[in-house]
# Entry
Amino acid sequence: MDLKLPIKIIDELLDEVVESTGVLDLASGEIRDVKASEDYDGFPAEDEEYDFTSGVLTNGKKDVEFRIEVDVVGRKYSVTPSELLELKGRAARLFSAAPGQGPDIEPVKPRKSR
# Structure
């Protein structure tokens, strides 16, 4: 099965957050088609103020955040096999829930009038 999901990439720097988009390949953990924010020039992980990178999968109003590994030399993003395994389970729950409702949210039951 070839499953690729659009994600948001968040690079945290000391005084700045750089947001990009990309496509996560759930089979390999590779992140491709990265489109950097127009407000930032360069590869954020090369900045001396770089701290870490995370990713976000979204379904409606619910998000799943995960850790992203950065290869500065190759200028690539990826997800480790252990993080990918955990993410697959979390993503399955996220996308099996109705948009706007996460797996941990119970539907509101109407109150009986007295």
